[in-house]
Specification:
CATH topology: Jelly Rolls
Order of helices and strands: HEEEEEEEEEEEEEEEEEEEEE
Radius of gyration: 18 Å
Strand content: 35-45%
Largest sheet: 11 strands, mixed
Helix content: under 10%
Distance between the termini: 39 Å
């Protein structure tokens, strides 16, 4: 799509996101209270990030080079002190030239799965103009425009674009479903915006999703916050993604639902998305 059109899309997303912040926010501490119980499930995947380097037999780049308003480079992802760190910062001498850099990694070469409970424990990156996410993807999403999500969906377990909002809305994360490609025929559903009582930028929280034949149930800190079967439930293997994004397009930073990253000081800014573990149960 041309740059002007993507810029327009970013403004539309920002408008819709602001509307949702007014009308679709659900405090986690007021959730119904149904809790996930993994005691009778089987642990089929776990990365505690306890090694000295990222396990490249499982994780690989979700992409390299131009990504939205910046670049994705594996140089911005490292395992250190028992955690995965994905940084976002401006680099004059980055892998692809001067610009804003971050990273996205996925498990497509090491782990794909259908159904189960997926959970990530993490601390969100501080900064306007960027967001982190824990999500599932199937390769069919960008290729098929059949109007049916059963052959694959993008399942955003959480996304965190609201750091620049006024308190307490800056403690919100959002869960979303996408299918049917990423152009004019795309289908999108916002499951909800969840307001955390435990500041997600200062503290670790868990973000989970139980995927069954009936639908997707979303959890924060083990407590159910939402459910959807929008578009028909995916029946295909999906892989996990951990990523940060910079608002904009064609490696040109721009305004979007997370704000404008160039409002930060290029010379000193460095956001840190810290992941303690990722686990999957059947």
């Amino acid at each position: 799509m041309p740059y002007w059109f993507m810029k327009f899309v970013n403004y539309v997303i920002a408008f819709v996101s602001t509307f949702q912040l007014i009308f679709n926010v659900h405090p986690v501490d007021k959730a119904p209270g149904e809790k996930i119980d993994t005691s009778e499930m089987s642990l089929v995947f776990a990365d505690e990030f306890d090694g000295e380097t990222l396990d490249t037999s499982v994780w690989g780049p979700h992409g390299r080079g131009v990504r939205r308003g910046g670049y994705w480079s594996m140089d911005l992802a490292e395992v250190r002190d028992g955690d995965l760190h994905i940084y976002t910062q401006y680099l004059e001498d980055g892998e692809f030239g001067p610009g804003w850099y971050t990273a996205g990694i996925d498990t497509r070469k090491g782990f794909m799965n259908t159904y189960g409970y997926y959970e990530c424990r993490c601390k969100l990156p501080k900064g306007v103009g960027l967001w982190s996410a824990f999500w599932l993807m199937n390769g069919n999403v960008s290729q098929l425009t059949t109007g049916d999500a059963t052959l694959g969906a993008e399942i955003d377990i959480y996304e965190s674009p609201y750091y620049g909002q006024k308190a307490p809305r800056n403690r919100c994360v959002t869960s979303n479903i996408h299918y049917n490609g990423y152009e004019l025929k795309t289908r999108y559903h916002n499951v909800g915006l969840w307001l955390l009582d435990n500041d997600p930028y200062e503290n670790f929280n868990t973000y989970g999703m139980r995927w069954t034949e009936e639908g997707y149930t979303f959890y924060i800190n083990g407590v159910k916050v939402g459910f959807t079967d929008y578009g028909g439930v995916s029946t295909k293997d999906e892989y996990m993604i951990l990523s940060c994004e910079v608002d904009g397009d064609s490696a040109i930073p721009g305004f979007g639902w997370s704000g404008r990253i160039e409002d930060n000081d290029k010379s000193t800014f460095k956001a840190d998305f810290v992941v303690d573990y990722v686990r999957v149960y059947k």
